[in-house]
């Protein structure tokens, strides 16, 4: 029987990642290096290393950027206190925050300002969650699990729910259900905070798992959405592994799997998928079939600082 690879579609870059990378590339082309970027522009080591070679300098804090220099804010978003500090320090801020993350920030502000306590469903140590919670830190509680939901002290206030954009849909549902059981109807945004790219990539993995017994997810360990793809694959009954690229492919892992599913997180460049496919073909998995669950045609406008150079 032939050995097959089922390739997920959509996979790899989302519109927010595309935009963030393009912003740094355009700034480098227009101003020359160094261009300072607060935090990894997107959570992918390959992307970060490529931009570093071009002259981007990644820093943990805006305090590490010399006064008067450009400071790009990463796709994951920042707390208002970071923007204030950039202004105090005389930095020229260029905003590469994904508009879908900014939308969640706006929701959090609106809910707190209308008297709600915000339950922010997400991972407390993830940079996106730190940024969102920073909008109204005293009125926001990070909820990581249904157990956290059961322990939440509402302080006598109505509860509103917002979520990190890159979670597993199933995990969010369990946590929101637990909140609803305790507090009744919750205030929630009309459209889910889990972004279209997260949802599509997870749906594609579920489809792959109907036929593939092993699913390889290409992405960095720091990538939340890639980690969630592994979890979704496992929950759907497949064996799954997160690999940084074909160099990390453990051949022993492939044994006994006739059909392998392949996908990549929203911050993973397509070229890493192509090299993994070539490696799999060399190893005998040379029948390729793309499994498409959705077509994406989302583009976000560039900020005016770089759009002017278009
Ligand atoms: Fe934006 Fe979604 Fe991409 Fe995150 S995964 S950068 S929220 S489009």
Strand and helix map with partners:
Blueprint: E1 4-9, H1 15-31, E2 35-38, H2 45-54, E3 56-59, E4 70-73, H3 80-88, E5 92-95, H4 99-113, E6 117-121, H5 127-133, E7 140-143, H6 146-151, E8 159-163, H7 169-183, H8 196-209, E9 214-218, H9 224-235, E10 239-243, H10 251-254, E11 259-264, H11 270-282, E12 287-292, H12 304-307
Helix pairs in contact: 4-5, 8-9
The protein binds iron/sulfur cluster.
The site of iron/sulfur cluster has 15 residues, from helix 1, helix 4 and helix 8.
What does the model show?
This protein has 310 residues and is an alpha/beta fold. The protein has 3 domains: 4-13 and 196-292, 4-hydroxy-3-methylbut-2-enyl diphosphate reductase, catalytic domain (Cobalt-precorrin-4 Transmethylase, domain 1), CATH 3.40.1010.20; 15-98 and 301-307, Rossmann fold, CATH 3.40.50.11270; 100-183, 4-hydroxy-3-methylbut-2-enyl diphosphate reductase, catalytic domain (Cobalt-precorrin-4 Transmethylase, domain 1, 3-Layer(aba) Sandwich), CATH 3.40.1010. The chain has 12 helices and 12 strands. It has helices at 15-31, 45-54, 80-88, 99-113, 127-133, 146-151, 169-183, 196-209, 224-235, 251-254, 270-282, 304-307, and strands spanning 4-9, 35-38, 56-59, 70-73, 92-95, 117-121, 140-143, 159-163, 214-218, 239-243, 259-264, 287-292. Strands 10-9-11-1-12 form a 5-stranded parallel beta sheet, with helices on both faces. Helix 4 (99-113) packs parallel to helix 5 and helix 8 (196-209) packs parallel to helix 9 (224-235). It is flat.
């Amino acid at each position: 029987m032939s050995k097959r690879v089922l390739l997920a579609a959509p996979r790899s870059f989302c519109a927010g990642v595309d935009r963030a990378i393009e912003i740094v590339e355009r700034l480098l082309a227009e101003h020359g290096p160094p261009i300072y970027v607060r935090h990894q522009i997107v959570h992918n080591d390959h992307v970060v290393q490529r931009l570093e070679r071009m002259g981007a300098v990644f820093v943990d804090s805006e305090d590490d950027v010399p006064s008067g220099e450009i400071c790009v804010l990463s796709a994951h978003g920042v707390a208002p206190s970071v923007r204030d500090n950039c202004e105090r320090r005389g930095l020229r801020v260029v905003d590469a925050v994904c508009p879908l993350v900014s939308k969640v920030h706006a929701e959090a502000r609106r809910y707190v300002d209308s008297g709600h306590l915000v339950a922010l469903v997400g991972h407390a140590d993830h940079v996106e969650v730190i940024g969102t919670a920073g909008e109204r830190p005293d009125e926001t509680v990070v909820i990581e699990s249904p157990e956290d939901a059961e322990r939440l002290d509402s302080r006598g206030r109505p509860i509103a729910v917002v979520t990190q954009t890159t979670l597993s849909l199933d995990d969010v549902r369990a946590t929101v259900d637990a909140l609803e059981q305790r507090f009744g109807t919750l205030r929630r945004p009309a459209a889910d905070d889990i972004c279209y790219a997260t949802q599509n990539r997870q749906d594609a993995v579920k489809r792959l798992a109907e036929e593939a017994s092993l699913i390889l997810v290409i992405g960095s360990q720091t990538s939340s959405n890639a980690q969630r793809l592994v979890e979704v694959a496992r929950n759907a009954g497949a064996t799954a592994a997160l690999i940084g690229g074909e160099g990390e492919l453990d051949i022993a892992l492939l044994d006994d799997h006739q059909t392998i599913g392949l996908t990549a997180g929203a911050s993973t460049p397509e070229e890493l998928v192509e090299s993994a496919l070539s490696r799999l073909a060399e190893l005998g998995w040379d029948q390729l079939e793309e499994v498409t669950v959705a077509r994406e045609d989302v583009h976000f406008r560039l900020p005016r600082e770089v759009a002017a150079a278009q």
